[in-house]
Amino acid sequence: PNFVRNLQQGRLGSPPRPPLIKAPGDEDDLPAKLDANIVAIKKQDGLGVAAAGRERSAAPKRQSDEPRMPPPRPLVLEEKDGGQGGPRTDSGYDEQTTPKAWATILLDAQVPSFTLSGAEPSSSGDDNTAAASGAGVGINNPSAAVTKNVPPAPGLMAPPPRPPTLRSQPRPAAGSPFLSPAPGRLLPVPNRGPLLGGGSGLTSSTLAPPPTHSSKPKKPSKQVALQPGHSPLDWARITGPGANLRGLPNNSPYLRVTPSMLRRQTGRKGTDAWTVLGGRVYNIGPYVPFHPGGGPELLRGAGKDGTQLFGEIHPWVNYEGMLSACLIGLYVPEEPPKDDEDDD
Ligand code: HEM
């Protein structure tokens, strides 16, 4: 009998009522009276008491669900009920037959955020405490505008770690070129090097030549160690004006040297070493101990035209000036054979 009485009065199956805002003068038992009226109306309409109870049990649920409609932006998508319909059985969503992904609604989730201002406990105090107490949060107090360090709700990604702020960098010593003279200015970005002309004296990094990638790698030098008294200056001294290193008798005229004549002057077997450079024939024998590239290297051009070889190694060398005292004559083609017919 108690169960039937409670059922008739609508006390069974009713979820807790949502809080109502009461107007002044409202009676305290207004919700109970409203429920009783609903039961009476249902009876008049021929509906069963049980149906009325179901209606009442469903109505507050919808009411509590109404703020959730439409669903907020999905934070995490996951399938519920194995993809068979949605989570709400008292709405039209359960008429869906295809599997559907439903958003997990996290109304109470606190989205963790971060702040741009540092929160060093040493300099600015405990910002978390300030923010939690709500004191001083605002534009004029940005250091206090940090969020409560709410742990991320399940399914949410953890916030990224805060980058180190300039304020958290170690402050340079007094008198340092990195110290900004103007108060309130930001410190220079580290690892950029000092400015030019800043009087810091630390300009080596900015004056260093940039790395080049276009120059060829250097070949190893083939220069040899010259004997004492055989330096380039010594050669210049002995080849001054009036010097004669031709290897020919004095006052000999310049010769017309043919290829056959040239081939015999190789520097071997007691002969002088002649070479051709730019159409002129030089006696290079005296220069052998003065040649920075070594005697054997120089004699590679002896007895032949060494113009191409010379040019391949050191085209910048002024051979005409250096060998003026060694000039033999002009390099000329072989003389044509004499015509014997004239002798008849
Ligand atoms: C035609 C045969 C010659 C050959 C094969 C030859 C070869 C060389 C070589 C291999 C070097 C060393 C290059 C280096 O690695 O630094 C050299 C340097 C030199 N040779 Fe010759 N040379 C010849 C003729 C001459 C002649 C006729 C002269 C002067 C009249 C001369 C003057 C020099 C000078 C001044 C250097 C030093 C160049 C420098 O320091 O940049 N060479 N030569």
UniProtKB/TrEMBL annotation:
Keyword Heme: yes
Protein origin, superkingdom: Eukaryota
Chain intervals with Basic and acidic residues compositional bias: 53-68
Matches recorded under SUPFAM superfamilies: Cytochrome b5-like heme/steroid binding domain
Keyword Lyase found: no
Record-linked InterPro entries: Cyt_B5-like_heme/steroid-bd, Cyt_B5-like_heme/steroid_sf, Cyt_B5_heme-BS, Cytochrome_b5/Flavoprotein_Rdt
Boundaries of every Cytochrome b5 heme-binding domain copy: 254-332
UniProt entry keywords in alphabetical sequence: Heme, Iron, Metal-binding, Signal
Listed Polar residues bias regions: 116-131
Start-end of Pro residues biased regions: 151-164
Region Disordered, residue ranges: 49-95, 116-251
Pfam families: Cyt-b5
A single GO molecular function term of this UniProt record: metal ion binding
GO cellular-component term (any): cytoplasm
PANTHER family assigned to the protein according to its UniProt record, in alphabetical order: CYTOCHROME B5 REDUCTASE 4, CYTOCHROME B5 REDUCTASE 4 FAMILY MEMBER
Family under the similarity heading: Belongs to the cytochrome b5 family.
UniProt protein name: Cytochrome b5 heme-binding domain-containing protein
Organism: Lasiosphaeria ovina
